[in-house]
Amino acid sequence: MSTPQQTLPNDNIIATADIRPTPETEPEFILYDDFADTSQQIDFFIPNRFIVAYCQQGTLSATINHQQTTTLSHGDLMIVLPRTSLEDFNYSDDLQMLVLSLSPSVINDSLLADKNLWPTIEFVANHPKTHLTDDEKEVGQQYYQLYKSYSKRKPTKFQRNILHTLHKSIIYEIADMLLNRMDTIPENEQYSQTDNTFKNFLQLLAMSKGKVRNVSYFAHELCITTKYLSHIIKDKTGHSAKQLIDETVAQEIRRQLCYTSKTVKEIANDMGFPSLSFFGTYTRKHLNASPANIRKKYRAGK
Questions:
Q1: Residues in the chain with pLDDT values less than 50
Q2: Are residues 196 and 150 in the same domain?
Q3: Containing domain of residue 30, as a range?
Q4: Strand order in the sheet with 60-64
């Protein structure tokens, strides 16, 4: 699938696109709704993003994390978490889909901030496809129209705030929908001990608020070895525990730089960095910019 790219002045939004965002330019959301040409690869499943894909017509199948094959047909919704591997795509010539792609930062802000959302994470990992009711299709259409509208608008003063609320709203809407289905899981599909360890790790990660940067702390709190914790996280996400920790720390740094009036020194101290120099090095490594430039870029875009 290859469609024309329409990049708007606001770098937080891209509509109907064929791209691979880089960390420096990654938009908050990408909306795909033009499938006039499916002669090329299915390119809207960008790695490390949160994908909501609704099948309007035709069929699409893919292998998830090298083992689970899922087929979508009319009325099916597939939710793909960040760090999920997708391959072996097959699709019919008449495929028509609506696909919303959200950046990892949007998801981290929502999933890690509210413990009530955590039970849905493992459910989605094991049950990525669900069939929508008529009422759910109607709600989904309303969200599509909102995202479509914002993909065409010129930037406004409060657009970032509005989009932030919209992203959180659709995540809660999806969580509400999934909770109605989670009660129907058979006994033999209930969560294993490793599932619970993974969820407890996410809970500790959220509670740490980016102030803990070593894997050994989390392993100690969970009463398991660092090696075993790393194995569980790698198995569940395809990434190391250290990578998830660093992502959480980086997003908290970005949040404090963009949404608080604290000085850079105060933020570094608050997050337990031994020096401003080390804080700057860490920020440049994980956010591709110095603390001052991150704050400057955010304020310039307001």
A1: 1-25, 38-41, 186-188
A2: no
A3: 6-182
A4: 68-72, 60-64, 86-91
Would residue 1 count as lying in a domain? no
CATH of the domain at 79: 2.60.120
Q: Are 86 and 203 in the same domain?
A: no
Asked if residue 204 belongs to a domain, the reply is yes
Q: What is the pLDDT of residue 110?
A: 60
Residue 87 tokens read as 């391959």
pLDDT value at position 146?
Answer: 93
**Type of residue at 71:** T
Contacts 24+ apart (CB under 8 A), 167-173: 167/28, 167/29, 167/102, 167/106, 167/110, 168/109, 168/110, 169/143, 170/52, 170/100, 170/143, 171/107, 171/110, 171/111, 171/117, 172/110, 172/117, 173/139, 173/143
Query: CA dist 199 to 133, 192, 222, 231, 299, Å?
Result: 29, 11, 11, 14, 35
pLDDT at residue 23, rounded to an integer: 42
Q: State pLDDT tens for residues 139-194.
A: 999 999 999 998 888 888 888 888 888 988 999 999 889 888 886 554 445 556 77
**How many residues would you count in the chain?**
302
